[in-house]
Amino acid sequence: MYSITLWYNNGVKNPLVRRLAPLFIAKFLLCFVFWYSIEKLFMYSIGFNDASIGLMAAIYAVMSVFMEVPSGVLADRWSRKGVMILSALSMLLSSYFGWISNDPSLYVVSAAFWGFFDALASGTGSAMIYDLLKEEQGHTRNYDKILGRFEMLGGIALIISALLGGWLASATSLRSAFFATIITAGLAAVILLFYRDTTIHKQSTDAKLIEHTKGTFAAVFKNPDLAWLVVVMLVVFLVQKMNGEFYQLWYAALSMPAALFGIAGAIITGTYSSGGAIVRFFATRRRVLLALAVCFISAIGMTISPSFWLTVGLQFVIGTLSFALVLALTSKMQHYLPSKYRAGAGSVINTVGRLIFIPCALLFGFLSNTMSIFVAGSMTVVFIGIGLFAEFHARSEK
After folding, report:
1. Taking Cα atoms as reference points, which of 220, 225, 238, 281 lies closest to residue 394?
2. What angle do helix axes 143-171 and 15-31 make, rounded to 10 degrees?
3. For residue 8, what pLDDT is reported?
4. What is each CA distance from 254 to 104, 198, 248, 373, in whole angstroms?
5. Which 8-state DSSP code applies to residue 341?
6. Nearest 5°: phi and psi at 289?
7. Rounded to a whole number, what is the distance in angstroms from the first to the last CA of the chain?
8. What is the C-alpha to C-alpha distance for residues 18 and 97, in angstroms, rounded to an integer?
9. What is the greatest pairwise CA distance in the chain?
10. What pLDDT is attached to residue 285?
11. Residues 6+ apart with CB under 8 A from 59
């Protein structure tokens, strides 16, 4: 707390802090989403079941895929600030269409805009921080530390908004959580107008767009130093995505009330904060391997746990470790890439991850609907097992 206070107090004299401030405030507001913790309850209330929830998760991913690489390339070539503003507007529209939805067909529009938000925001903020540090300081030695604070702030916003979302749902209606988020998303878009973008990433703007896109894919998939790192990143991405997208289905299966959805949602979304806090501990391959092993054991526990609070605890462990690993591995990947490809490269990883996630989401929803959520949860065990194999293989090649 002292370091954060000192960082703030020195902000007036520190150009780095002044430039980061709008980005950090916007991050908080974009993560202050009241409806995340009660979304599945709302979806059940307007006619969804587990299979159609899986389908909706796939639609989220499809929309993200359509925008992921174009948004990353756009951020690299045009304006990362502009892309972040577009992400805020997409969240606003997603919340608006969720607010007015009375059946699954209209909620699809909300899902589409959320997919756009996810694609536009992913990788952009971290690339903005990396280049801002390089432009202001001439080095990025404190990148992991600043990125961890950035994600911790988002995690704090998710925790508070999840609790408030559960309270709003219980005190008023499930729908009101969507309306409240329209306000915070709009504020984020306004705050981002005050951010001063970097110019370091625009060194390649003379290249043709299609060449830049090809170069972005090549920078990731044709780099032998990144081969096994990419495999582990994709696995961790899928584990985090499935844990974050479907965790509420366990609570519905256990017939938990809306208020507990809010409390549990605060705990699970808090993994963005706890994960950001511990990301610096995963600088070595041994610790990455240990984290994957703990996730593997926790995922097995979720397939047999009959307890609500034990399930929440296991989900918290998986969410915290998987998010910390995403950040740590992303940070490692940044060091292998030139600035002109950084935002786009992150988008490439997310695009491939979402392409894999689409059939997985459909299968997860089908298994949960026809068998049980516990059987569907075994998919996470398989993914983490693949991640362990890839990390062992990476170790053996060193």
Report:
1. 225
2. 30
3. 46
4. 23, 49, 10, 10
5. G
6. -65, -40
7. 39
8. 35
9. 60
10. 76
11. 108, 111, 112, 115
Paired tokens of 128: 């903005």
pLDDT score of 307: 86
Extended beta strands in the chain, E state: none
User: Which tokens hold the place of 218?
Assistant: 């090549």
Which three-class secondary structure string do you get for 354-383?
HHHHHHHHHHHHHHHHHCCHHHHCHHHHHH
What separation in angstroms does the CA of 137 have from each of 18, 131, 270, 336? 14, 10, 31, 20
pLDDT at 224: 59
Give me 120's structure tokens: 């536009």
- Copy the structure tokens of residue 30: 């974009």
Tokens of 122: 């992913």
- Taking Cα atoms as reference points, which of 84, 327, 29, 90 lies closest to residue 197? 84
Calculate the alpha carbon distances from 365 to 58, 144, 298, 375 in Å.
10, 36, 21, 11
Tokens of 294: 């703990």
Residues of the chain with pLDDT under 50: 1-9, 11-12, 204, 206, 396-398
Q: Under DSSP, is residue 115 helix (H, G, I), strand (E, B) or coil?
A: helix
Asked whether the beta carbons of 106 and 96 are under 8 A apart, the reply is no
Res 359: pLDDT: 93
For residue 332, give the 3-state DSSP assignment: helix
Start-end of H helices in the chain: 2-9, 15-31, 39-45, 50-77, 80-99, 104-121, 124-137, 143-171, 176-192, 209-221, 227-253, 258-269, 271-278, 285-302, 308-334, 342-370, 373-376, 378-397
Q: What is the DSSP string of 164-226?
A: HHHHHHHHT-TTHHHHHHHHHHHHHHHHHTT----SGGGGGTTS-HHHHHHHHHHHHHS-GGG
Cβ(41)–Cβ(214) below 8 Å: no
CA angle, residues 363, 366, 372, in degrees to nearest 5? 110
Please tell me what DSSP assigns to residue 337. Answer: S
Burial class (CB in 10 A: 0-12, 13-18, 19+), 13: exposed
Here the tokens at position 325 are 């690993």
Instruction: Report the length, in residues, of the chain.
Output: 398
* Closest listed residue to residue 324, CA positions, set 273, 267, 290, 289: 273
The pLDDT assigned to 234 comes to 87
Q: Please name each of the domains of the chain with its CATH number.
A: 2-199+220-397 (1.20.1250.20)
Q: In the 8-state DSSP scheme, what is residue 43?
A: H
